[in-house]
Amino acid sequence: MYRAKAVTVVPSFLLVGPSGAGKTTLLTRSEHGTAASTHTSQSPQAVTCRLPSSVTARSSQYRAADDPSKEKGRQFELIDTPGHGKLRHHAFTALESEKRLRGLIFVLDSAAVASPAGLTEAAMYLHDVLLALQKRHTASKTSKGPASIPVLIAANKLDIFTGLPAQVIKKKLQQEITNIRTTRAKGLLDSATGSEGEDEEREWLGEGGEGVFKFKQLEESEIEVTVLGSIAIGDQAQTDEMLQWVAQQM
Ligand code: GTP
Ligand code: MG
Q1: Is the pLDDT of residue 125 over 60?
Q2: Burial 27-55 (b: 16+ CB within 10 A, else e)
Q3: pLDDT at residue 139, as a whole number
Q4: Which of 66, 81, 159, 172 has the least C-beta neighbours within 10 A?
Q5: Cβ atoms within 10 A of the Cβ of 79, count?
Q6: In a 3-state reduction of DSSP, which class is residue 153?
């Protein structure tokens, strides 16, 4: 007798963020339950993980505990990307082409963003990632492409005493992206005066025109941004909130 084989599509989540933020450490912890030591990444890697029993995927919440599909529903894929400035094209390629993408996790080092240089680096990368997601959303309207991609900003290394709390980081990122957005807009204007009324591609992040940038402005492009803290190593490791967010998108 013919029995249709269920096609299971494992939802996939992309890890991006500056070098040394803890992406690969979070990946190994999610895969094995404990963090292994890491080297700076030079290429992307994908692993299949399983939600811990304390967390239930949103799509499985009404299934009976002994339903075999519930077990399958715990699986998700994490794609790690290198954070080095010269290797970020891997992240953008994955972001543009990965069909099963259910969410993006932007990992940053909570202590590194306490310095102006660290904050600028993280905010510039985040700005470009959000802009790429905004373009992906605009393109999906015409090409029946993938829908909205939620973003989790994981303020990692909260165990370091110089680390800033997640909500302070959220505010600082919004301020810094406000500056970046204005600077980029000026750059575009300057170059546009040289070209004879060329149709410049819209490169502005978020609706709401000039002025202060808020993550909320991205809801227009169905990009929902959440900021949470995490600790990827040691006895105080803390990744439950991150995994709960992952489970909500599954
Ligand atoms: P790239 O591969 O270069 O993009 O960096 P990455 O984001 O993958 O960073 P990685 O996971 O390799 O971690 C960098 C360093 O930070 C390692 O020495 C980790 O052990 C350390 N680390 C990661 N997470 C934490 C954390 O939550 N707290 C502390 N204190 N250290 C952490
Ligand atoms: Mg890495």
Answers
A1: yes
A2: bbbbeeeebeebeebeebebeebebeeee
A3: 79
A4: 66
A5: 24
A6: strand
Q: Copy the structure tokens of residue 47.
A: 């692993």
pLDDT at site 2: 54
DSSP letter for each residue of 157-169: -TTSTTPPPHHHH
Query: In this structure, which residue's CA is closest to atom 22 in ligand 1?
Result: 22
Cross-strand bridge partners of residue 34? none
Residues, CB-to-ion distance under 5 Å, ligand 2: 23-24, 41
Using CA atoms, how far residue 225 sits from 150, 221, 232, 235, in Å, is 6, 11, 21, 28
The token pair that represents 108 in the structure block? 């940053």
| Residue of 175, 165, 181, 55 whose CA lies nearest to 110 | 165
* Whole-number pLDDT of residue 72: 76
* DSSP letter assigned to residue 114: G
Q: How far apart are CA 223 and CA 226, in angstroms?
A: 10
152 vs 227: CA distance, rounded Å = 6
**Residue 169: CB partners within 8 Å, gap ≥ 6?**
108, 110, 113, 153, 155, 227
Q: Residues near ligand 1 with C-beta < 6 Å?
A: 19-25, 38, 40-41, 82-84, 107, 156-157, 159-160, 231-233
d(CA 17, ligand 2 centre) in Å? 9
Calculate how far, in angstroms, residue 133's C-alpha sits from the geometric centre of ligand 2. Answer: 22
Per-residue pLDDT at 199: 44
Q: Which helix (H) or strand (E) holds 78?
A: strand 75-80
Q: Which amino acid is at 167?
A: Q
